[in-house]
Amino acid sequence: MEILHDQLLAAFNADTSLRPRDVMVMVPDINVYAPHIQAVFGRYQAGRKRHIPFTISDQGQRNHEPVLIALETLMSLPRSRFAVSEILSLLEVPGIRDRFEIAEEDIPLARRWVEGANIRWGLHGAHRASLELPAGLQRNTWQSGLRSMLLGYGMGDDEPWAGVQPYGEIGGLQAGLAGRLGEFVYRLESLWQTLQESRAPQQWETLFSAMLEQFFHKVEGHDLLLLNRFRRQLEQWLDDTLAAGLTQQPLPLNIVKDVLLDGLDEGGLNQRFLAGKVNFATLMPMRAIPFRKVCLLGMNDGDYPRSRPPVDFDLMAQDYRPGDRSRREDDRYLFLEAMLSAREQLYISWVGRSIRDDSPRPPSVLVGQLQDHLNSLWTLPGQPDEPITDALTTCHPLQPFSRDYFPQARHSGSLFTYEHEWRGAHDNEATEQQEQPQQKALPFQQPEEPITLNDLAGFLKKPVDTFYQRRLQVRFDDVEDDDTDNENFDLNGLDRWRLDTELIEQGLLKAANEDDLHERLESTLDRMARRGDLGMGITEHKLRSDLSGRLPDLFQRYQSALAEWPEALSEPLPFEYRLSNPTGSVEVLDLINNLRRNHEGQLCRLVIAGSSLLSGSGYSKKLRYANLMRDWVIHLAGQLTAQPFETLILGKEEGRKVRFAPLPKETAAKHLDAILARWMDASTRLYRCTVRPVLPGFTASTKARSFSVITNARSAMPNRLTPPPWSGTPVICEAPSKVPKRSCKVVNSKPCCTGCMCLYGKPSRKNPPPVRLRASYDGYHRNDKPEP
User: Minimal CA–CA distance to 222: which of 363, 449, 67?
Assistant: First the structure.
């Protein structure tokens, strides 16, 4: 569609006599292309140079008018799964929202409550049983979720009652929203039950009129016109059934619904077809009117000729005879009509490359036959062996900002685009390097309150967020694309982390022995199951095993660590630190907990990793340094207190533990000062870099063997915040301290010293390094065996 927009602009620019009304664009299905047409051609308002007036014909209102979509959803409830997205989308219609006194700003809160109560689909167990599913599947339904909400409002986040786990987020002045949401679902359930039976035409008219009164209120404007059209269509249908003698004839819902909604779906010649603009329409009869320029889009293999599966009662499709209508032959005839309608130019477009692997894709069989016909009749002058269709076909790249549209030297065959905004993405690097030193940093603003160690750890993970959050007060929310319409069959990373943390806090840390651990784990898993976190049936059994399978080994290692460090400090260790430099000053204030003491009086911070410490599988497992970042910052801070300590991190993986040995106070202060200095700089300007941590005094242990990682006593990580003139995948090279300089195994013959931080990758001056933290563990230098 963007290519078409550029081609039409070029045609209007080349021929001043060409007008928008002289252009016809036809596609296989206008309802599929309508959003893309609006997105591309509707970007520019009238009066702008790149504005092209257009109109869309043959688009059924049933597919894009929210009120009609809501009507169809309500009338289709007997076959509905009552999925969360489907039901909450009804509240996006103002008329339905006003009927139940739900404000537009309440919808995000209602959505959050619905997701928190683990409502996925289905009214209740009986509704799921009506869909030929086993009886008793109550979890993740609207009934179970609303019961949890209302019970949570009355009891808070307390023990279960009558097998219902309370959802404690409901409370305060906004609690009334839960009641109004429950009333909305109750009305839907009543309508679902009412629509189950066949009825006489007069009874259907009464039922649908009552449905409009129960679900729509204060409808005005265009929505009111559509509802009035539905009422008139209903009255006309009732008169037709009475005239046909069907007064007492019971009619099923699916027939009545299709007749009423099809009558609302405007199409054919009722819409403005020749309106003096560029016409977008579906390839259908009565569209083959002569135009100076005819464009055919979507001529892909499998999309055109269109395939229409026959309905069950179509007996002619099972016994085809000469003279019977063929939809594919109709499309072939429409294609020929469109060719004859083009008076000056015929423009045909199709997807020629796969979006996944860039493999060639053939066009429609009709386009292929046209190409063969042209190649058999015409040749290029002086090139008899060259197919003429190669000269007539132009291959465009996938993205509109491709460099192919902005060549250094333009010639007659160059690709072009009128979207000049993309040229800024291809400015040469020399210009960027000249401009970058001219960019001045903003003056440093001292925080109103002391920062915490979590703030520093967050800065190391996502440096760019510090600038946006601290200076611009901008927070970017992650786009959630989770499937909220189906119960859990597996856990994503965030859900697994949340459930693992709950099992560790409620079971492992509180258990006195293995029997107590088993009881606490079962009780916690039962609570998760009642909330709907674990799915049902076999899925629940599998997730229970996955979540609790690694905890017995972790419990044994935790108990061994408790035996080594038996005494727990009753009070957290306070930490206060201030850094002043020419940029400004910043104060860190926090409490360090989870400290324990052994018989010799030494301290250790004992923690259980909340996230997995390893990524990958088999021998390719890598240590996730990002998951150790917070504990490393706390460890550095602990070395500056009156009671330095070591840090022991127990991983969830079998036998995995990580130890941070005590550091000299000067070394820890040097590292922490460097981090604070860079944190101050990050609040004044935007870093375009990749941050790589170096963990001093780090030891990773497994059952098989133990490795020591020794790094140079320098603040390597903060110094690497300067944007390098290359991009690649930076990897920390870890090796024994006595290994001489050799070629790093991740770098092509690039010298690399011991304990260094390799930021050298494959040179690329076109794409700068991404602004995000990337950490990985790639083992030791090639041919170097680690010291035990």
Answer: 67
Among the listed residues 114, 90, 189, the one whose alpha carbon sits nearest the alpha carbon of residue 484: 114
- Cβ atoms of 120 and 486 closer than 8 Å: yes
pTM: 0.69
CA 250 to chain centre: 47
Q: What angle in degrees, to the nearest 10, is found between the helix axes of 176-194 and 201-215? A: 170
Residue 752, strand partner residues: 742
Closest CA to 713 of 696, 735, 699: 696
- Beta bridge partner(s), residue 567: 597
Residues in contact with 283: Cβ distance below 8 Å, sequence separation at least 6, in sequence order: 26, 27, 28, 296, 304, 331, 334, 335, 338
* Residue of 484, 533, 488 whose CA lies nearest to 84: 484
Maximum C-alpha span of the chain: 100
Any idea of the CA torsion for 597, 603, 608, 611, to the nearest 10 degrees? 170
- The secondary structure of 161-217 as a DSSP string is BTTB---TT--GGGGHHHHHHHHHHHHHHHHHHHTTS-B-HHHHHHHHHHHHHHH--
Q: Other C-beta atoms within 10 Å of 228: how many?
A: 11
Q: Which residue has the higher pLDDT, 488 or 646?
A: 646
Q: What are phi and psi of 43, to 5 degrees?
A: -70, -30
* Pairing verdict, β 567-568 and 278-282: unpaired
Spatial distance between the Cα atoms of 469 and 476, rounded to a whole number of angstroms: 9
Residues 6 or more apart whose Cβ sits within 8 Å of residue 472: none
Ramachandran sector of residue 748 (left: φ over 0; alpha: ψ -120 to 50; beta: rest):
beta
Q: How confident is the model at residue 431 (pLDDT cuts 50, 70, 90)?
A: low
The predicted-structure confidence for 530-570, as pLDDT tens digits, reads as follows 988 888 888 888 999 988 888 999 999 999 999 999 999 98
**C-alpha closest to that of 127 among 81, 163, 184, 162:** 81
CA distance 3 to 214: 48
> How many C-alpha atoms does 48 have within 13 Å on its Cβ side?
11
Alpha-carbon distance 81 to 47, whole Å? Answer: 47
What is the per-residue pLDDT across 352-407, written as a single tens digit (0 to 9) for each? 998 888 899 999 999 999 999 999 999 888 888 889 999 999 999 988 888 888 88
- Given a contact cutoff of 8 angstroms between Cβ atoms, the answer to whether 290 and 341 are in contact is yes
**Full 3-state SS string of 635-677:** HHHHCCCCCCCEEEEECCCCCCEEEECCCCHHHHHHHHHHHHH
The token pair that represents 354 in the structure block: 């796969």
Higher local confidence (pLDDT), 100 or 322 = 100
The tokens describing 208, both together, are 């649908």
Kindly provide the residue ranges of all beta strands, DSSP E only, lying in 308-421, ordered along the sequence. Answer: 342-348
| CA nearest neighbour of 578 among 673, 645, 507 | 673
Q: Cis before residue 305, ω within 30 degrees of 0?
A: yes
Q: Within a 10 A sphere around the Cβ of 156, how many other Cβ atoms?
A: 13
Q: How confident is the model at residue 597 (pLDDT cuts 50, 70, 90)?
A: very high
Confidence of residue 492 (pLDDT cuts 50, 70, 90): confident
If you search the block for the tokens 């929203």, which residue do you land on?
177
3-state SS class at 603:
strand
Whole-number CA gyration radius for the chain? 34
Give me the residue label for tokens 């820890």: 668
Q: Which helix (H) or strand (E) holds 482?
A: none
